[in-house]
Recover the amino acids of this structure.
């Protein structure tokens, strides 16, 4: 159960976010996938979203609600990549300047993406905690507004619009699978789905080496991992957001983990069988889908949310090089 003292995002807030985003973000497609013997499996393709990931939804919903003076002064965020690109694009659309604090290990494709939208990029450490400290210092020194990457009701409501679209596009859906990093997408999608259709099952997915939300759920409170490791660079926060954790506790049915090998196999499968370019973080939900199929679980009808597709050509080639396809 969620902490009674925490105000969860309402369905009305998510619907209001959808109205703000109308005509700004893409309503990404829900595509059927050819899983042998399982015709009712679908992919919600946020890899085809503006800036290549779902993050523009929460970023724009946050920025558009800022006072004019705050937007004039500029914004800053801390991000492994996709949120940074979403903030950079939202800032560009709204005529303000963005500063993005990225890890020193950020993929070049995500750095170039943020810079391509006009953002200033700074580098700090390898963990979300290190990036947050740098962003807070820069915000204080430069008079910038911090755009949280996941732990904020405006961010959660924006990401929750993915869930509304899934329900509209696949009205008979029985299960939604969603990746978990810091938990903004998981919080928003689970809230949107459960508040509109409580009978629909919502499953979160984390890498085995970065299962902060699963560990927090088992403990009953947000916990901080000693480290997080995975090929899925967008799913590495060592601690879930407090507000996101409360939503997951209230609305998510289960959290499963997938190995890096399963994530890579999902990237491979998506490229070879579904003809989609998906980054490892975005493919985690499909790794879980394939895991469920291998286990013999009923998949009908299931929607897996592909959260992003920002991957370099070199990395994609290394992950999908010719070889036997085992899934």
């Amino acid at each position: 159960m969620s902490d009674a003292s925490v105000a969860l995002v309402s369905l009305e807030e998510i619907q209001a976010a959808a109205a703000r985003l109308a005509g700004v973000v893409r309503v990404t497609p829900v595509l059927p996938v050819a899983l042998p013997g399982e015709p009712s499996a679908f992919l919600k393709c946020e890899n085809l979203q503006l800036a290549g990931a779902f993050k523009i939804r929460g970023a724009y919903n946050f920025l558009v609600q800022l006072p004019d003076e705050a937007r004039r002064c500029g914004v800053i965020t801390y991000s492994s990549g996709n949120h940074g690109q979403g903030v950079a694009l939202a800032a560009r659309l709204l005529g303000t300047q963005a500063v993005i604090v990225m890890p020193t290990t950020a993929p070049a494709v995500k750095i170039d993406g943020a810079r391509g939208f006009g953002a200033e990029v700074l580098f700090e450490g390898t963990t979300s905690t290190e990036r947050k400290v740098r962003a807070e210092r820069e915000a204080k020194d430069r008079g910038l507004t911090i755009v949280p990457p996941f732990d904020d009701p405006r961010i959660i409501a924006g990401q929750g619009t993915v869930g509304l679209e899934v329900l509209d596009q696949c009205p008979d859906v029985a299960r939604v699978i969603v990746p978990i990093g810091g938990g903004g997408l998981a919080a928003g999608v689970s809230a949107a789905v459960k508040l509109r259709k409580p009978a629909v099952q919502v499953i979160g997915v984390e890498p085995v080496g970065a299962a902060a939300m699963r560990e927090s759920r088992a403990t009953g409170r947000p916990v901080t991992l000693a480290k997080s490791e995975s090929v899925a660079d967008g799913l590495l926060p060592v601690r879930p957001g407090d507000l996101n954790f409360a939503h997951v506790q209230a609305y998510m049915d289960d959290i499963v983990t997938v190995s890096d090998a399963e994530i890579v196999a999902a990237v491979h499968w998506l490229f070879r069988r579904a003809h989609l370019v998906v980054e490892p973080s975005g493919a985690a939900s499909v790794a879980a889908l394939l895991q469920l199929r291998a286990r013999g679980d009923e998949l009908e009808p299931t929607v897996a949310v592909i959260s992003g597709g920002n991957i370099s050509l070199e990395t994609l080639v290394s992950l999908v090089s010719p070889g036997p396809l085992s899934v």
Q: What stands out?
A: The CA atoms of residues 32 and 42 lie 4 Å apart. The beta strands are 30-32, 41-45, 75-78, 98-102, 120-123, 145-146, 175-179, 201-207, 254-258, 302-306. The domain at 11-53+152-320 is CATH 3.40.50.1100 (Rossmann fold). The chain has two domains: 11-53+152-320, 56-146.
